[in-house]
Amino acid sequence: LDDVRGHEGHLDSLAERAREAAMLLAEVGTDLGSFAVGVEMEPERLAAVQDRRAALGRLQRKYGPTLDDVLQWAQASALRASQIDGDDVRLDELDAELAELTAEAGRIAAALTDARAAAAVRLSEAVDQEIHLLSMPHAHLVVDVTTPTVDGENRLGPYGHDEVEFLFAANNGAPPRPLAKGASGGELSRLMLGIEVVLVDQSTVPTLVFDEVDAGIGGKAAVEVGRRLNRLAKHAQVLAVTHLPQVAAFADHHFLVVKDDDGNVTSSSVAELDDESRIDELSRMLAGLEDSETAQAHARELLHLARS
């Protein structure tokens, strides 16, 4: 620019500005050199700062994403750490509380065992009275309450110390056996009926179904079965399948199941009987003849007995 100075006014202006810039850069260089001479290098400090930045980055990735999140985590962890430092004392407190509650639970379980044992006797006696009237005069129900032990101590569970099992003996001299092994189907049905009658005020079952609970009995025992089914029906809906008129007479509603066969298809139908057809059906069940005057008189007598 100096070589062409004086030939072009605009270039003269640019040359002046370039000279000023060169002088300014020279001053900056001088000042930078003076500053560099006074700078003290600290490699250890630089390494420490870099390490801290790396550590903060790792914390943010693990507990972040922000440093505020990391600080909140640190505060909560400090509180937990202080609690852990006192765990020995807390464990001693919990051990003492556990011992106290275990002793209290043992006392309650022992009282429950006594109550169960007394209730077992009452239930056995009451059910025996019922099943003796259901053509099982020598049958006996045993409610067995046992207390298992573990390492010499009574086992304690959510329902106390005890295990409860129902045992049944159908005849004199026969050892009581679990219900599944000691009772036939008919005996089990009548035993269930006796239990339901005894516990009628305690039961919450809305519907009870008895399928030929009167199997293998007749006469007075059948009347007793009908009477007990009727008593249960005051507290729940009772459905009973029966071939005995003594039982059917006690029902509030009598339904007849009829099987039809036209030679090709067999079908079943169910019909509710009115009073007259009910007498006819009871007569048929009694004597096999619905037109028999004697059977119809007996049927009316059964209905009168049941309704009274």
Question: Which helices and strands occur, and which strands form pairs?
Answer:
Blueprint: H1 9-38, H2 43-63, H3 67-85, H4 87-132, E1 140-146, E2 149-150, E3 153-154, E4 163-169, E5 177-178, H5 179-182, H6 185-198, E6 207-211, H7 219-232, E7 237-241, H8 245-248, E8 255-261, E9 266-272, H9 275-287, H10 293-307
Parallel strand pairs: 6-7
Antiparallel strand pairs: 1-4, 2-3, 4-5, 8-9
List its salient traits.
single chain; 308 residues; alpha+beta; 3-stranded antiparallel beta sheet; two-stranded antiparallel ribbon; 10 helices; 9 strands; 14% strand; elongated
What's a quick, concise take on this entry?
58% of the residues lie in helices and 14% in strands.
Textual characterization of the structure:
By secondary structure, the chain is an alpha+beta fold. The protein has ten helices and nine strands. It has a three-stranded antiparallel sheet with strand order 1-4-5. The protein has a two-stranded antiparallel sheet with strand order 2-3. Helix 6 (185-198) crosses helix 7 (219-232) and helix 9 (275-287) packs across helix 10.
Class by alpha and beta content: alpha+beta
**Individual helix count:** 10
Give, in order, the helices and strands.
HHHHEEEEEHHEHEHEEHH
Shape: elongated
- Residue share in β-strands: 5-15%
| Unreliable spans | none
Distance between the termini: 138 Å
Mean pLDDT: 88
| Main sheet summary | 3 strands, antiparallel
**Percent range for helical residues?**
55-70%
Q: Order of strands across the widest beta sheet?
A: 1-4-5
Radius of gyration: 49 Å
Count every beta strand, where a strand is a DSSP E run of 2 or more residues.
Answer: 9
